[in-house]
């Protein structure tokens, strides 16, 4: 038996002894940037790609080797499902929009209404990324859409970029998820937004359908995220949880 075959046989035997498939660690999870701290704690097995949900959706549509897709809104996952590119999505987490300001609050921002006067540096997600779409819905409900015209606005491709911009002092304020505010609590301060204006923020996840997809491990990962232990991690990072079942 040649050396490569011996190594393959050893790997298969080890996998059998451990009760897991030999390819168990060789699968890819494409997930919204706001999940970049929680997901690796739930499972260290996958190869992760974190970015804006709309960017990841486009990559999957172009044939990227994703096995699991987790988006920060139902739109992206449901679009892939409608196109036959993933199994039926499941809702696994919720979130809330907040504003964050740098430590010291140099822009002297007290509430979202502080932005009506203009002259502030505001970081938001682009209209196509979920956090950007949610932000625009919230501002419209508050009749404050004009703040995106009256201030100096930077359009960011994902929520991590918004958070970094504020944490570094390159923006006076940014619109992010509650979980991102908590993750950057050492460098930023969170300002709550009116509850009645909050759009529902729902995260959905699905197993990607493609040639060569690691469907078994993808479904196993989804079960891990939605398990009692997985939900406990999400809750610890500040995510809300949908009813179980």
From TrEMBL:
Name a biological process GO annotation: molybdate ion transport
Tell me the domain of life. Bacteria
Q: Which residues bind molybdate?
A: 34, 53, 159, 177
What Pfam families does UniProt report for this protein, alphabetically? SBP_bac_11
Q: Which GO terms describe its molecular function?
A: metal ion binding; molybdate ion binding
What's in the keyword line of the UniProt record? Metal-binding, Molybdenum, Signal
Q: Which Gene3D superfamilies match?
A: Periplasmic binding protein-like II
Signal sequence coordinates? 1-26
User: Family, per the entry?
Assistant: Belongs to the bacterial solute-binding protein ModA family.
Q: What is this protein called?
A: Molybdate-binding protein ModA
Species of provenance: Paraconexibacter sp. AEG42_29
Gene field? modA
